[in-house]
Design goal:
Low-confidence stretches: 1-6, 375-395, 462-626, 637-643
Shape: globular
Number of helices: 36
Mean pLDDT: 74
Number of strands: 9
Helix content: 40-55%
Amino acid sequence: WDAEVLSMEELRGTAENVERAVGEALTARSIAIDYYRHGGPPDLCCLEKQYQRAWLPTDVAPLPPQGYYHWVVGADCSCPAAVSTYFDMLARNLTMPPWYASGSYNVTKATFCMYNPFRRVDVRCEATFPGKVRTFYVDGKGDVKEPVDDEIWEEAFLGSCLRSIHRAPNLPCIKVLAPMSLTIEKKFIQLASKHFWKSNVLGNSTEHPQHDFAYNWMSVTMSDFFRENQRPEAAVDFFLPLAAREPALAVHVSDAFLRLQDAARAHALLDDSITASGKQFVLLLKKCEVLLAEGKITKAIAVGEEAVVESGGDVSGWLLLAEAYFKLKAVDMSLVMLNEAPIKPYKPFPQIGIPKMNVRTKAWVPSNPNMLLISRMPGDIDEYGDEFDDFLQVHHPKPEPLPGELFEGYWKRAFDLLVDIMNSIGWDELLEARARVFLMKEDVDKNADRSTHKDVQSKADKRPKDGGRSPAAANGKVAEEIQPEQGEAGAPGLDGNEKSQPKEEREAAGGEGETKEVSEQAEAAGESPAGKESEEGGQTGEEGEGGEDKGQAGAPVAVTGGNFGGEADEKAAVGAENGEDGAAAAAASSEGGDKVVGQASKQVASPTAGKQAASSLPVNGSSCAEGNEVEGEKLKSAAAGQGSRKRVCRPWLDTVFHAVYEDLKAYYAWLSEEEKFANMNPESMTEEDIEDQEVSFDEWMHRGAIARRLQNLSEAERALRAAAAMSNSAIAWDQLMQMYAEEGCLKETLVAAHEFIDCYDIYGASPVPPAPVQVRRAIFLLVSTHGLQKVRDAQDSIGVAHPVINDLFHFIVRSRVHGFAN
């Protein structure tokens, strides 16, 4: 009976957190108002419920109210009346008491909080039952001010809409609602245009170039909104009037022109904006992207170099240059450009303004596919836990997450580039290129031995010949003392352990190629490679003073000529010659790695100065040839003929290499395991072999994710289909649907969309709810690629469309998604 009474406080379809004291969530949110960044936290809804008995003696006091709260994403809060409608929906969804209950729970007070990021205040709508609706806002000092004027409410509503476009945070008891309707969307776009010039206070996006308006949090969110909904025409209409005031906003208009396959208009707009703004680096970066999309690689490299100089070494510029050199088949240069990107470690912003978790209501939550945007939806595999595995008779531990799963933004972009290079030339060749470009453990040992030999030889010359030791014996003793440790950065083993690598991988990463040959030739001539470099005039160090930051250039120890390094490289090389440990000299030159390369290298005033600025960048080659293939051959022949100054691989890039290695190791372990069981005789298999052969749902999903990261889509499809067949999981069908849509597969995407929708009973009701975000994105991408008519024809060939898909086709026409008229 007690369990039945407690269940009466729950809301059907909404899970809630129970407060330890009434008002706890509101107090925590008020304290954190000044510490929120960008768009702020999701909307917060707090309820006070009171148990009221059916009959109550006059001498008995009523029970005190109890506080509950949950977060909301996507609620209509355009006006106080819309918020009151949400309150009424929650009150109607209270669990009905059983017939034998002595009373029931009622909502006595409700508060809805919307963070206004433009003024850093929290706008709140409070309703009492029965009573009235009150609106006020709270600032960072905790002062309550009212009334809320229209402008403050509009800004708060705009912030709520912007937050609904972003991926919802993984908070307990967060409610993700359906996407905005066309009416709300129209009002949202109008308010975004009206209040756009206040968006510079929101801060810059961390995964984009730093600019107050072109890449602040709001402009990036609006660009993502138009891109995900495949509406480039609407993006042009929104950003083009704003670009007349701020030319840097032309980056979003040109991006829309590219999706409209109108590169000529994109070039014309960017050229006009560059002329009007005086070569802003964000415009140069976008022009480089446009040239890369058109296949004009050499011109893209020239523009990219200029953008890096103008920006002082922005991460996006280095990554664009790395991608451009990879398209020229110049892998060494691509790795050099990638290593120069000053990517910082990923540090997620801590979640603040959240009370300490108490207990949660065990409400019946209907399957909501929008919850997949957070992590895993409630009611899926995680909720059943071991019971689900017992049902499938699979008892495998869940696979450990790999580093590649956590990469986002710049990290994921660098990871994908390394995977592209690996798929193009192979893993062994990638390790060989890494050994040619970066400092390896063998290079440290060799330079330490050489420098020690010089010191001991000079001391032996000063000693009496009859009482001194032999230089060979002294050299051997000192060399034994300065051996570097196994776990040093840049060692052949990507995990820091040389023995853990296969023999062929250790040979490929050993750095025994061009560096050894050139060093031996220099030693045979009676001089060290570093000495030969200095005798040739020290050209590298002179260029490094104007073009590279001392701490960012990366410290070489093994030197073979060329002009990759700067002044910091010369200092590190001299330190190695003077007997310092190679790794210590490398660390000394790479100190302050978070500084940006080229901060003092804005020298693009004339063709001569432009050439000098380009040469100050770590680019092996001073100008671009007319043909991409000819230029690529020139770069490779120059690297092979002149050699390169080795540099220390940055810790973040070494981490990305290690992540690729871990994915490859897990991928081939999967294939080896399948081959092992395929070659076994079924009659001779033991019970342990049969149990090991069984694969759980989590393992199939893990394998599918690995195959997708390594761009092996056939194996990814096989793994995801096995996971979907095992549990009919919406997660697996969602991954398949997105993969098919990205590849432009019509029938496969539509079939996966139907299976995804059938996983939820809520879409069997009438009238059907709007299509979930995942299905919208996939279908919008198909329509943008093939046209609406071809998508409809593909649906007719499969069978009758699901009512949700049919309504989505009508929505595509009303919202004018790109391709709706084709």
